[in-house]
Amino acid sequence: MRAIIFRNYGNPQEVVELVDDMEIPKPNKNQVLVKIECSSINAADRYIVRANYFIIRMVFGLFRPSKKKSILGMDIAGTIQLIGKNVKGFKIGDPVVADIRKSYGGGFAEYAIVDAKHLVRKPDTVSFEQAATVPISGQAALMGMTLCTINPGDKVLINGASGGVGSFGVQIAKAQGAHVTAICSTKKINAVRSWGADEIVDYKKKGSIKALNGNEFDVVFDTASFECPGRYKQILKKDGKYVLVGGDFYNMLKLKLFGRFDRGSQKFMALTQEVEVTKNIKTVLEMIADKKINPAIQKVISLKEIPDAIHSLEQRTVIGKIVVNLNKKDVANS
Ligand SMILES: NC(=O)c1ccc[n+]([C@@H]2O[C@H](COP(=O)([O-])OP(=O)(O)OC[C@H]3O[C@@H](n4cnc5c(N)ncnc54)[C@H](OP(=O)(O)O)[C@@H]3O)[C@@H](O)[C@H]2O)c1
Questions:
Q1: Cβ neighbourhood burial of 291 (10 Å; 0-12, 13-18, 19+)
Q2: Where in the chain is the domain with CATH 3.40.50.720?
Q3: Ligand 1 mutation pick, 99, 223, 274, max ligand atoms within 8 A of CB
Q4: Any ligand 1 atom below 6 A from CB of 136
Q5: Domain with CATH 3.90.180.10 in the chain
Q6: Which residues are in the Enoyl reductase (ER) domain (predicted)?
Q7: What's the DSSP call for residue 126?
């Protein structure tokens, strides 16, 4: 089968390549084989390819990625082709969606095996392209928002609002009745506003974050935590909640292990545990089917375009999500 693999760590445009001779994996009795229709690019893909964090090398291979974990891609939407004999509730031909992080990727390929417990049925009214944006980004946004318990009228500040998770964060918070202030860079303001943000803070403008009023926000939802989370103490309400979803890995680790920024009833949390992943995916898919939110797809690409797409994520030129459609022909195969 065709797949996007990496044999070394480094620049995605140099180490990530399209091959056409990967073996189609075989499901065991508790798994299914999914013919992938669509997948999506995630921040995780770029972190794994670069392997700048030692923990990634511990998981994927110290000096180079292990052969078994060499296919990139963390989320899939497709149809079931083969089914293990213990799998209940699904049949061949069912359209499904899955987060496949626990199998160390495999989504940028024509087929992937998925543990049945990770499968979510795709609603008919949600396209494969829309569905492929949900397992990592949509699900993490919902998990973060759930951790903060948003009530209608709450003031929510979203940092990294223009990214994959942020694009869902803005829309989910709005759907839950929040007043959303979004932090993003100048070029992405129009898109973020079109997703429903009530107010925009352009962090490229000097002093714009400092200008935020004190004691203002019920929730800070941070997908781009590249500075100390403690800087939000002053602008959070007395009983406000901060959730760190992503950004600098060491900030996340520090907050999780040592960083008790809690002050009075203010709570500082890091989204490091994957809780109720399939339930969250299902809920986000239903929100799309009910037209409460709409995945912000910047573009749809073919397998061959993936190295450039990962590079563009590094360059921060992506707005929302890039979807990979396995049926989209690329030059090498047309
Ligand atoms: N905990 C979980 O389960 C979970 C799940 C999914 C993702 N994550 C993490 O959440 C983070 C965001 O993921 P994502 O998919 O939304 O990523 P993304 O699509 O790349 O978006 C991140 C956004 O953050 C902004 N940003 C601000 N400062 C940045 C900097 N120094 N470097 C890079 N971006 C910066 C960029 O927007 P502007 O150009 O507008 O600044 C960018 O669009 C990642 O760290 C990811 O690993 C965690």
A1: exposed
A2: 136-270
A3: 223
A4: yes
A5: 3-133+296-333
A6: 10-324
A7: S
- CA-to-CA distance for 279 and 127, rounded, in angstroms? 19
Could you tell me if the CB of 12 is within 6 A of ligand 1?
Answer: no
- Two tokens, residue 61: 């291979």
10-residue averages of pLDDT along the chain (334 residues): 97 97 96 98 97 94 94 98 97 98 94 97 98 97 94 96 98 97 97 97 87 88 91 91 92 80 84 86 98 98 98 97 94 49
- pLDDT of 195-211, one tens digit each? 999 999 999 998 888 78
Ligand 1 within 6 A of 212 CB?
no
The CATH number of the structural domain formed by 136-270 is 3.40.50.720
What superfamily does domain 3-133+296-333 belong to in CATH?
Medium-chain alcohol dehydrogenases, catalytic domain (3.90.180.10)
Ligand 1 atom 28 nearest Cα: 224
Cα angle value 273/253/7 (rounded, 5°): 80
pLDDT of residue 331: 62
Ligand 1 proximity of 158 Cβ (cutoff 6 Å): no
Ligand 1 atom 21 nearest Cα: 163
Sign of CA dihedral 64, 133, 191, 158: negative
Residue 94 C-alpha to ligand 1 middle, in angstroms? 32
Q: Using a 6 Å cutoff on CB, does residue 224 contact ligand 1?
A: yes
